[in-house]
Amino acid sequence: MAQTQMIDLFKKKEPKVDVVVQIVPYGTFDQQLLQATAAGRGPDVARVWIQNLGMHVESKGLQPLDEFFKHWTKEQKEDFIFRSSWQDAVFDGLKMAFYVEHRVRVLWYRADLLGAKNVKPRHARWRS
Q1: What number of other Cβ atoms are within 10 A of residue 42's Cβ?
Q2: What pLDDT was estimated at residue 124?
Q3: How far is residue 89's CA from residue 96's CA, in Å, rounded to a whole number?
Q4: Rounded CA gap, 66 and 4, in Å?
Q5: How many angstroms separate the CA atoms of 70 and 104, rounded?
Q6: Rounded to whole angstroms, how far apart are CA atoms 70 and 18?
Q7: pLDDT, tens digit, 9 for 90 and up, residues 105-126
Q8: Calpha distance 82→101 (Å, rounded)
Q9: Could you say which of 24, 72, 95, 106 has the lowest number of CB atoms within 10 Å?
């Protein structure tokens, strides 16, 4: 798993830092994160849905990330695999989050296999 590989690489670079991954059910995550940060026991890093980010920013449970990237150039700020804008996830001029994944609702298909059966998808661009 990519996450495990990234954590392993981080641990090699920073052996004194403990990394504990805690998986929280989707249905209760936001409520638990809000409660934990209000109690001063929030995680150092959390993955939240972009749709819910505003709620967490408003709760003052997140730390702005700007100080960690103040020396980045414009090119560095634009060098992301997901071509989102640096201004994404900026609230009141403060960078509060980064996109770590992008979910595209598309259906991929094997044109060679469908073509061999003489099948063409409807409502789709056909590429051979």
Answers
A1: 19
A2: 53
A3: 6
A4: 26
A5: 31
A6: 26
A7: 667 778 888 889 988 776 555 4
A8: 8
A9: 106
C-alpha 20/C-alpha 53 separation (Å) is 22
pLDDT higher at 79 or 96 = 96
**Two structure tokens written together for 78:** 């634009």
Residue 126's contacts (CB-CB under 8 Å, 6 or more residues apart) are: 111, 120
- Look up residue 117 and give its two tokens: 């059966």
- Interval 24-51: pLDDT, tens: 898 999 999 999 999 999 999 898 888 8
Across the chain, mean pLDDT equals 84
Minimal CA–CA distance to 42: which of 50, 52, 32, 51? Answer: 32
